């Protein structure tokens, strides 16, 4: 990576599985920096990251400047993060979790151990959290030298609207309050006695924050990326290449800065005063900076992103997981605004994954597990190992403040042009199944791909709908039968349901695509204006891709997976129905084969 005036990364080496092993920053002899990563050979988790500076007098000799060590439990939770300056360990952060991988305690120690919660080391802290069954944080306790302080979080009563929207937080000194619109966006909040009023645009982006006589405003491009930030006295323009231009309105002075990234991580920031190298932790928060003269600066944060200790002089305003820190107290993380003081976003996640029960809480940051998971773009968190794998395979999406992201699961596509004010759920691609020889639709093979359909944010009751999401749970559509199918509807679920939206309908004589009445608790077929397509008969001819496409919708409705064998055989089977569909010898995708029951 280079420009007309500087080379930022002069060399990069990778492991066999495409993880970054080592980077050389800079090109001038005796002024270069080297970053070396070590990974667990079995799990591929990052265990050590070391920053070395080239010796000022001896070429190709390197001095250890700063090292970060990581410890994990068998599940993959980060249990310890240790910092070492010039080889000497100065502090260890320790973490413990509950059975749902939610962070329950975090504390600091002077050396590696993490057995008994304490409060020692540089900028010490000790915190603990409790949660309810739906992932709402109920308390946070800070343990201090002069006593402990507990914040108590209050939510709507069980069965009420917006069950994940905190309404108040009370501690020994006062109460913070929060209100929301019908879409779940925060419209007003009072924190530490300071009142803010928030407005939102039609796409669900934060438009303004008014605090007394001061107003902050935000403008977004068509893709949902932040384009302008207006704050009292300044206007900042954000460009796609990492350039930020800040206008001071009183003087008319414009100051520019540019962030440089490599392999999805920030490696440097250039301003009018020169280049500063920045180095991130395992989830993208820059916490070590090296100035042009070699001076090293460290900054520390609490697990959910609050500053810890005294904030040092730092180039740029990017903070937790690379997000932009605003003077409102919020951090801009791609599609949403995040409040590190509460560990919550101020609006709901527009992407919902029903395979992850904790993620259905649309406000909690990274399933309440900020050390083991990361959510830099505000769209569904991922664990830190998955984040690295996706970045290497698809390019870094984590660092782009974009309004859309790829959900890393089989059979999903990136929602193109989806609005942030809506929820996105995975639904099967619908097509009309024609006779043999019908042209394959542009949507691809049914059972292989799915589109992400935006669903309006409606507030629903808990139990039937998923919390404040108000989105009825669809079947998880996969190339393989869903191991946890949606439960059958019970009486009162509505007089008419489309069988294609109920994963188990067909077990009660309700064929895919037909309409069933669930009022009595058992589906009864009723006249269908669009009859379900007939299954292929013995002797019908298909090419392999047509078979996958045309039969896929029939098999998917019955919970049957499609499997491609090593010689191109296609088989579908489901226990209990005794259905076995085989095509043998259909090795070429475009070849034509006869369909047979065996």
Map the helices and strands:
Elements: E1 9-14, E2 20-25, E3 33-39, E4 46-54, E5 62-72, E6 78-85, E7 88-97, E8 103-109, E9 126-131, E10 137-144, E11 147-154, E12 168-171, E13 174-180, E14 186-191, E15 194-200, E16 206-211, E17 214-220, E18 226-231, E19 234-238, E20 243-248, E21 253-262, E22 265-271, E23 274-280, E24 286-290, E25 296-298, E26 300-301, E27 307-308, E28 324-325, E29 331-333, E30 336-339, E31 344-345, E32 373-374, E33 382-383, H1 384-394, E34 422-428, E35 450-456, E36 497-498, E37 515-517, E38 524-526, E39 541-543, H2 544-557, E40 561-564, E41 570-574, E42 579-583, E43 592-594
Antiparallel strand pairs: 1-2, 2-3, 3-4, 4-5, 5-6, 6-7, 7-8, 8-9, 9-10, 10-11, 11-12, 12-13, 13-14, 14-15, 15-16, 16-17, 17-18, 18-19, 19-20, 20-21, 21-22, 22-23, 23-24, 24-25, 26-27, 28-29, 29-30, 30-31, 32-33, 34-35, 36-37, 37-38, 39-43, 40-41, 41-42
Care to give the gist of this entry?
The chain contains 2 helices and 43 strands. The chain is mostly beta strands. It has a domain at 9-360: RHS repeat-associated core, CATH 2.180.10.10.
Give the biggest sheet.
25 strands, antiparallel
- Give the CATH topology of the domain at 9-360: RHS repeat-associated core
Terminal Cα span: 58 Å
Show unreliable segments. 389-598
Number of strands: 43
- Average pLDDT figure: 73
* Portion in helices: under 10%
The helix tally amounts to: 2
CATH superfamily of the domain at 9-360: RHS repeat-associated core
Shape: globular
* CATH A-level architecture of the domain at 9-360: Shell
Overall SS class? mainly beta
The portion of residues forming beta strands comes to: 35-45%
**Rg calc:** 27 Å
CATH class of the domain at 9-360: Mainly Beta
Protein name: RHS repeat-associated protein
Region (Disordered): 301-328, 464-494
Keywords: Membrane, Repeat, Transmembrane, Transmembrane helix
Domain Teneurin-like YD-shell: 32-370
């Amino acid at each position: 990576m280079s420009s007309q005036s500087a080379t930022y990364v002069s060399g990069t080496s990778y492991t066999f599985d495409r993880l970054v092993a080592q980077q050389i920053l800079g090109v001038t002899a005796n002024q270069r920096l080297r970053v070396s990563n070590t990974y667990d050979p079995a799990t591929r988790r990052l265990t050590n990251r070391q920053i070395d500076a080239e010796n000022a007098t001896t070429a190709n000799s390197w001095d250890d400047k700063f090292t970060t060590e990581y410890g994990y439990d068998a599940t993959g939770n980060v249990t310890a993060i240790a910092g070492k300056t010039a080889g000497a360990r100065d502090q260890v952060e320790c973490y413990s979790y509950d059975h749902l991988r939610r962070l329950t305690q975090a504390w600091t120690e002077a050396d590696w151990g993490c057995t008994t919660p304490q409060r020692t080391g540089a900028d010490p802290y000790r915190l603990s959290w409790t949660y309810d069954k739906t992932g709402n944080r109920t308390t946070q306790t800070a343990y201090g030298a002069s006593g402990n302080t507990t914040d108590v979080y209050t939510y709507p009563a069980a069965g009420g609207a917006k069950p994940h929207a905190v309404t108040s937080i009370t501690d020994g000194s006062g109460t913070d309050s929060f209100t929301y619109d019908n879409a779940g966006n925060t419209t007003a909040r009072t924190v530490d006695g300071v009142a803010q009023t928030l407005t939102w645009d039609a796409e669900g982006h934060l438009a303004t924050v008014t605090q007394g006589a001061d107003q902050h405003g935000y403008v977004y491009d068509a893709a949902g990326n932040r384009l302008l930030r207006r704050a009292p006295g300044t206007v900042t323009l954000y460009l796609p290449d990492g350039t930020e231009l800040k206008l001071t309105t009183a003087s008319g002075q414009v100051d520019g800065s540019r962030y440089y990234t490599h392999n999805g991580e920030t490696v440097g920031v250039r301003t009018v005063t020169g280049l500063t190298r920045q180095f991130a932790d395992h989830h993208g928060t820059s916490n070590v900076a090296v100035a042009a003269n070699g001076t090293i600066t460290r900054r520390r944060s609490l697990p959910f992103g609050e500053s810890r200790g005294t904030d040092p002089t730092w180039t740029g305003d990017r903070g937790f997981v690379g997000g932009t820190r605003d003077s409102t107290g919020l951090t801009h993380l791609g599609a949403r605004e995040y409040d590190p003081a509460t560990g919550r976003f101020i609006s709901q996640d527009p992407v919902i994954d029903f395979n992850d029960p904790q993620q259905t809480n649309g406000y909690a940051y990274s399933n309440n597990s900020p050390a083991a998971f990361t959510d830099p773009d505000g769209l569904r968190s991922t664990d830190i190992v998955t984040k690295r794998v996706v970045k290497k395979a698809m390019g870094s999406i984590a660092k782009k403040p974009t309004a859309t992201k790829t959900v890393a699961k089989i059979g999903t596509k990136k929602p193109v042009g989806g609005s942030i004010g809506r929820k996105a759920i995975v639904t099967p691609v619908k097509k009309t199944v024609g006779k043999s020889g019908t042209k394959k639709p542009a949507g691809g093979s049914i059972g292989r791909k799915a589109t992400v359909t935006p669903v309006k944010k409606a507030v629903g009751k808990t139990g039937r709908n998923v919390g404040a999401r108000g989105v009825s749970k669809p079947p998880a559509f996969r190339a393989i039968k869903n191991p946890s199918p949606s439960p059958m509807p019970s009486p009162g679920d509505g007089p008419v349901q489309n069988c294609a939206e109920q994963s188990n309908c067909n077990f009660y004589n309700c064929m895919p695509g037909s309409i069933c009445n669930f009022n009595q608790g058992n589906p009864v077929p009723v006249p269908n204006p669009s009859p379900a397509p007939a299954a292929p008969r013995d002797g019908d001819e298909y090419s392999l891709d047509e078979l996958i496409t045309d039969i896929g919708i029939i098999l998917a409705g019955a919970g049957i997976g499609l499997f491609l064998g090593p010689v191109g055989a296609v088989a579908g089977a489901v226990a209990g129905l005794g259905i076995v569909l085989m095509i043998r010898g259909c090795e070429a995708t475009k070849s034509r084969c006869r369909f047979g029951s065996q």
